[in-house]
Amino acid sequence: MSSGDRVLIHYRRLPDHERVFDQRIVLERNDVIITLSQPLDLAEPMTLDGRVMLEPKSLALWFTFPGEWHDIGLFHRADGAFTGMYANILTPPEIEGSVWRTTDLFLDVWWPEGDEAQILDEDELDEALARGHIDRVTAARARAEAERLLGLARDGAWPPEVVSEWTLVRAVGELDG
Description:
Blueprint (H helix, E strand, L loop, with lengths): L5 E8 L3 E12 L4 E4 L9 E3 L2 E4 L5 E5 L5 E7 L5 E9 L3 E3 L2 E14 L5 E3 L1 H9 L5 H19 L6 H5 L2 H9 L1
Parallel strand pairs: 1-10
Antiparallel strand pairs: 1-2, 2-3, 3-6, 4-5, 6-7, 7-8, 8-10, 9-10, 10-11
């Protein structure tokens, strides 16, 4: 695949919800695939502690790392202002050409602009475990991944350098160029 090609990401949320994201490839390497979301069709802004993470018509730049248990999204407002970095804890994506499949493991790491990284949605993971939507081994793997990323962030060793090399402006320019 090359820059500008589209991928369909089948994003499963246990127990039985699936959403398909149509994104454009910005860059593909063996260690990372960068994609750009379509303008988001949100009914209302996604907020945390009164701060906007995403809003209607926002764009997100996504970094997928083949074989890894997380991806990274750079979140923006509709005007392009960066709001923070969001890592979904998920199963390593199954990448088959332009169709990808992954399963959300409930936990997320959110690093808002100008603040510290934090783990989100531990209550959702606990509830999924209690309801039998996720097994204990996978839940433990999700927790370990979220804690690992948080520790690396605190040590200044995360995110990977490729994330700081790519901005929304650079990605849009790559696609429009």
